[in-house]
Amino acid sequence: MFLKAVWLLAGLQIYLVRRCDGLTLSPCGTDNTLEVAENKGDNLFTCSGLTANDTILWNLMAPNTNSPTSLGTCFPYPTNTCRVTVAPLFTPGREGPSTTTMTVNATESRFNFYFEGPSIQCVAIQNNVVRESITCTLDHIAKPTTSACNILVNASAVSSEWTLTANCTVTGVYSYLDRYTCQLVQTSPSVSNQQHVNMTVVSSSNTKYKTGVCDVTVPFPDTSATYSYTMMVTPGRVDVVASFEGSNSFQIST
Questions:
Q1: Which residues lie across from 38 on neighbouring strands?
Q2: Are residues 108 and 224 in the same domain?
């Protein structure tokens, strides 16, 4: 249950909300999602792009309604003080003139509803007016307990084309928002290429945790260089070495 909060500053109600591109909320990904890892007491989010004169409001936005629950207020720098309203789950901080942080404690499962569906919002206020705000959706996740990736070199039976196929298996993974993907990263001294695929997942018996498989096929490199491969698994943004018989790199010479 979310309690609707009224934003108050110096006794004045604040109604105006404007969005700009100046604020960033990290590590919010390209899918506009912040991950809250279960059983972790120090999930850390950073809101940057502030000014020293900003008062910062941290809010939790209920899904589908955008009804805010206040998580705390941080006052202009160099005061460096914050008022906490939902302790010990959410602890705001003001580390400098341009940044504020929110530490999320996800160690108690009875409070999981805070992390499953709502969004977290960082709001910068000056002169009782909302100057900027930024919002990212929370995803309650469990990182893979085990993961392994192997790469095979494939020769086409009907053409002269060669390909590389990376196969990854992960276990014990969970995403409340069903964000199950793999990203194969191919790097060399001169170039880095990435390819995304969805993970095929199946539920483990009598549990929310899943086992997943990713298969990514890319063209065989045609330029002389040393290439290495890493698979980034979501949720958790876990980097897994994709190995050719124990090594994640090989060299092409012409």
A1: none
A2: no
